[in-house]
Structures are given as structure tokens and as C-alpha cells.
Amino acid sequence: MACHNRHVSFPASSLPLVLKAEEELHKLKALVGSGSLTCEIILDAIKAVGYVYECIDDLLCMPSNQNGLSHMQQRRWVDLELEGSIKLLDMCSTSRDNLNDIKYHVRDLGSAIRRGLDTIKSRVLFYNQLVKKANKDVKKQVARKSEAMAGDVPAVGLLLSETRDITTSLLHCAFSILLKQAESEKTGMWPVVSGLLQKRRIVCKKEIQEDVLDVVEDLEIGLENLFRQLIRCRVSLLNICCL
């Protein structure tokens, strides 16, 4: 969300939190722009994003900031931010649901391999379809643009805007990587499973987990923690509206 505007500075008491948030955002921006993201790096980045939202929530709960943001001239910004927070919550919720479907199917595939079912390849193809759907859903959410803020915008608004942009970029990258891995001729699910079957190895559930399931579960946990932090920030914004 582009912000061509003036910002209203924080009170001096807020500066330690602001500096922490800005330092983490600077690292995250450099990470996203590096083009060398992996699922493991994204998992760590999502934790860092959660820390930034924790700092922002602390800022929103400070009485000095609440008093300033509760003035009528700032209410337009609060309304826009509440709208933006709903879109990001929807994105996280949809991503969690898709990850849960993927996780369930990977477990089902592991059971099918152990039982030697003939439908293994079709199950692998269905797994690929689930990852494609998850990637498509997150791309749709990224394409949804919030109304740009204009005029005097509180500095916390700029922090929230930057953090939201980074969060959507990280989620987009995460599902893009999962899709690339699923479709890869060397590291995709079917080449891995096919190779193991050709060697007549007994494939246990743990071996499938090591390739896909652990990353999916860790990403799901990361999104769950991030979702809770987003809810706290939204509640803090709503509390400001009630002042």
C-alpha cells in the first residue's frame, strides 16, 4: 500500500519501541529483496514479523499514543487500518486452511505408501493441485489493494503499512516455494516417492515428513502465532475508536 503523505511523529516515550520495530523492518526488507529466500528463512522471518507486530501493539496501547490517535482527524486513518487488518487476517486464515489441507493429504499419502496402494500417483497429483490452489489463493489476496492513506498519517500507521506489505510478500514467497518444490522434476513429491518405490524401500511416514510435512506444520504454527498477534493489534485499534 503506497503512502504519499506526511506522518505524525511518536512521543519521545515511544522511541525505544519504534527503534526496535524499525530495525526489524529494515532486516526484513533486505531479506525479502535478497531473492534468496527458502522455507526455513521465511519461517524465521514470520517470527520476526510477529515481533514487529508485538512492538506496534505496545505502541498502540500507550496512553500518549492512544490520546493522539483518538482525535477526529486521525479516525480516518484508524478506519483504513482496520480495513487493511481484516484483509491480512483473511489472507492468514485462508493460508492456514490451505496448509491444513496440504498437511492432511501428506499424512494420507504416507499411509497409502506404507499400505502399498495403487492410487499413490493420483494422490501425489492431488497434493500438487492443493499446493497450486494455496499459491493461487495467496496471489489473489496480494492483489487486493487497500485504499492509500493520505494527509497527516501517524507514524504507527506507516509502521503498520510497511509490516503488512512485508507479511504479504513473505506469504506469497512461502507458497511460491512450496509450489516450485511440488512441480520440480528432481525434488517434487512424485520423483521422491517414485524413486523410493523403485528401490523397493519401505517408506515410513517419517520419511515423507522430512521432505514436506515438517515445513508445512512449522509454517502453519508460524501463521497461527502471527494471526493471534494481528488480532491483538486489531483489538487495540478498536479500543482507540472507543475512546
| Total count of helical runs of at least 4 residues | 8
Main β-sheet: number of strands, strand sense, barrel status? 2 strands, parallel
> What's the structural domain tally?
1
Mean pLDDT: 78
Outline: elongated
Helix-strand category: mainly alpha
Which oligomeric state applies? single chain
**Order of secondary-structure elements:** EHHHHHEHHH
N→C terminal distance: 27 Å
How many strand segments? 2
Proportion of residues in helical segments: over 70%
Strand content: under 5%
User: How large is the radius of gyration?
Assistant: 21 Å
How are strands sequenced across the largest beta sheet? Answer: 1-2
Poorly predicted runs are 1-7, 200-205
InterPro entries: BPS1_pln (IPR004320)
Any overview of this molecule?
- With 243 residues, this protein is an all-alpha fold.
- The protein has one domain.
- The protein is built from eight helices and two strands, in the order βαααααβααα.
- A two-stranded parallel ribbon has the order 1-2.
- The chain is elongated, with a radius of gyration of 21 Å.
